[in-house]
Amino acid sequence: MLSLQEISDRLEIQDVMVAYCYAVDTRNWNALDEVFTPDAVIDYSEMVGVKGTLAEIKAFLEEGMKPVLASQHAISTTQLTLEDDRAHGRTVCNNPMVLSGEGEGHVMFLGLWYRNTFVRTPAGWRISSLYEEKCYRYNVPPGLLAS
Fold first, then answer.
1. Are 141 and 106 within 8 A, CB to CB?
2. How far apart are CA 14 and CA 12, in angstroms?
3. pLDDT band, very low/low/confident/very high, at 147 (cuts 50, 70, 90)
4. Buried b / exposed e along 105-138 (16+ C-beta atoms within 10 A)
5. % of the chain surpassing 70 pLDDT
6. Are the C-beta atoms of 123 and 10 separated by less than 8 Å?
7. d(CA 133, CA 121)
8. Could you tell me which residue, 111 or 144, shows the higher pLDDT?
């Protein structure tokens, strides 16, 4: 049976993942400061060929998301292992994105898993490392993403 602490930890970690998705989808890059530890490593290399610090990734997202008219990171089915003040998780993400183009734009779909390490900080749970593991891509324009 789960303890109240473990239930609380799981819900707080889920909230951090949701905050990440909303920050990216609303382009609120500064909200990512409340999601990641200051020394976090964010690795998008498998999906878009970029890996970096929080500051580097915020700059990348600000520029890289310009042609994206809308996105919706929908997360589900998290597997989570808690180890005191650390946790490791794997979470499914389905992400439709509308790119600028003729008419209503071009819609592509990305499927991935987030593989994260979380740490409990004085401010609550934060992501200390994020890795995007590719599952599928559909209707992606040639040359847009890492191969």
1. yes
2. 5
3. low
4. ebebebebbbbbbbebeeeebbbbbbbbeeeeee
5. 98
6. no
7. 26
8. 111
Residues contacting 2, CB < 8 A, separation 6+: 10
| Amino acid in the structure at residue 36 | F
Residue 12 backbone phi and psi in degrees, to 5: -65, -40
- Is a pLDDT exceeding 80 seen at residue 15? yes
Q: Give DSSP secondary structure letters for the chain.
A: ---HHHHHHHHHHHHHHHHHHHHHHTT-GGGGGGTEEEEEEEE-HHHHS-EEEHHHHHHHHHHHTTTEEEE--EEEEEEEEEETTEEEEEEEEEEEEEES-STT-EEEEEEEEEEEEEEEETTEEEEEEEEEEEEEEESPPTTSS--
What residue ranges define each of the domains in the chain, with the CATH number in brackets? 4-138 (3.10.450.50)
The residue whose two tokens read 């990348």 is 60
Binning pLDDT at 50, 70 and 90, where does residue 143 land? confident
